[in-house]
Predict the structure of S-adenosylmethionine-dependent nucleotide dehydratase RSAD2.
Amino acid sequence: MWVLAPAAFAGKLLSVFSLPLSSLWRSLVLLFCWLRATFWLPGTKTTKKQLVPREPTKTKEEEEDPPLPTTPTSVNYHFTRQCNYKCGFCFHTAKTSFVLPLEEAKRGLLLLKEAGMEKINFSGGEPFIHDRGEYLGKLVKFCKAELQLPSVSIVSNGSLIREKWFQNYGEYLDILAISCDSFDEQVNVVIGRGQGKKNHVENLQKLRTWCRDYRVAFKINSVINRFNVEEDMTEQIKALNPVRWKVFQCLLIEGENTGEDALREAERFVISDEEFERFLERHKEVSCLVPESNQKMKDSYLILDEYMRFLNCRKGRKDPSKSILDVGVEEAIKFSGFDEKMFLKRGGKYIWSKADLKLDW
């Protein structure tokens, strides 16, 4: 068709000029219409549809589903800030005396269980200080007997625990962690773990025996700081034989143990990363040792305060979310700053039920 078009055009042009002048203009108009029909290519007509800008192609990341909400697998509930010790490096200090009513605390724990919580750890302050441990015991029993959580644990300085508590509530407790930073009683006094005539180390031995008698897994937590960093605790730890020995590097938290609004001044307790590594090297033969440097510790815990607010430590201080009692777990946990990858990397998920530990009682 396109090969014959020039010849056809020439013929048309000659025929136009052979016409009288009166018909010339009408014939030129007809010729123009023929040219337009002949040479206007199909598909070249611009339509409104073609002028509409196309949506940008979505990237692979945009095509993926939105991230799933964080699951509160393991939660640390600091239901009280009150304590009978004055540890100089404490990073959860007695800034309030508030404690939730028991039924409200239970409601919050149920919300956490429904959101996927498997392990609850009760801490403080000193958790045994409120109502002589009865409040704590009722929460422990509720979590194990009614919520049927795989793991219920406590972190305590141990000074207020009585054998009767084990008799009433020991069966519902999986792990009791006792804070002990030194096996030299004078060092404990300097740190702030001294309390009159009571000997912290002797009390630790008694608690170890009660844990064995009432079938509660025994754990030790130690904060490595300026006053114990050169100590060798290998022999004592092996003798006590805890299921885990958590070794923390002393950590500064703005508003808690450092800064204008802080109740402690922990700067004098701080050690370097190199000093912490030397302490770990000295105790490398202790198989139950679980180290936590500042980097591992800071964002790898889900912490609930006394109002059941998640505490975000990403900026070096504790910024609270709204309470789970007011907005629910899924909404509140968005502001927790929780680093789940670091939680797993530091060994946050382990065999934490005494039924699975298969201990030789």
